[in-house]
Design brief:
Largest sheet: 8 strands, antiparallel
Structural class: alpha+beta
Bound molecules: nickel (II) ion
Strand content: 25-35%
Number of helices: 6
Number of domains: 2
Length: 227
């Protein structure tokens, strides 16, 4: 499932984050690539573990923790410390699949990447190109979101970032190990949770049918989830 999560950060939070990371020492983006994606990748990154990346990453993790749509959709077990990249002057990241296992530079975090996330930190009108193209079984999806919005997609998807031909595309990217490893199971739980929330709004939380449905949701989570 691909999911657009609007306003993970407010415009004011984006501005303050940009102030912080724009002042960092950006380096060649291939520092985090596997050998295959290094061939396709032309961009810049904030060094993992740099003070700016750490502080900005913490702010994003805080915002995610208080975002109910993210929590419901991702059922996160571990969120990788957010990284930051930027593309300008024709830079691009050709078609690739993200590594299945990710380890932080300091060795403290190691995850299975179930979900990939891109949090946009530049307004779409400030650059040309830079679409995130994700291929799934329904075809090719092209994503370019307002600053502060995020796209969540299966880390198993082939994806690319098209060349940025004007301006600069700045984003945060990271991976999530979910309590639910399988995308189809996670999607079912998401749909069920959303329907339960909508029903609760209509009939109130105490309806016996809703109690049963909520019980079934939790029992599926118990059956499929790992912690
Ligand atoms: Ni990628």
């Amino acid at each position: 499932m691909m999911l657009h999560i609007p306003q993970v950060l407010t415009k004011a939070e984006v501005l303050s984050l940009r102030g912080l990371i724009d002042a960092g020492d950006w380096v060649d983006g291939n520092v985090t690539s596997g050998a295959q994606s290094a061939l396709a990748k032309r961009n810049e990154q904030l060094p993992e573990g740099s003070p700016q990346a750490r502080q900005a990453g913490e702010a994003i993790l805080d915002a995610l923790a208080r975002n109910p749509l993210f929590v419901t959709a991702a059922l996160p077990q571990i969120v990788f410390p957010p990284l930051f990249n930027r593309y300008g002057g024709g830079q691009t990241f050709g078609v690739h699949v993200d590594n299945a296992v990710r380890q932080s530079a300091d060795g403290r975090v190691r995850i299975r990447s179930d979900l990939s996330a891109t949090l946009f930190l530049a307004e779409p009108e400030d650059y040309d190109g830079g679409e995130l193209q994700v291929e799934d079984t329904f075809g090719l999806h092209e994503v370019k979101l307002p600053a502060g919005d995020m796209i969540l997609y299966p880390a198993s998807s082939l994806h690319q970032v098209t060349p940025v031909t004007r301006g600069v595309r700045v984003a945060s990217f990271f991976w999530i190990q979910s309590m639910i490893r399988d995308d189809a199971q996670r999607t079912l739980l998401f749909q069920m949770d959303i329907a339960i929330q909508q029903l609760t709004g209509k009939v109130g939380p105490g309806a016996p049918e809703l109690v049963s449905l909520t019980g079934a949701y939790h029992n599926l989570l118990r059956m499929w989830g790992d912690l």
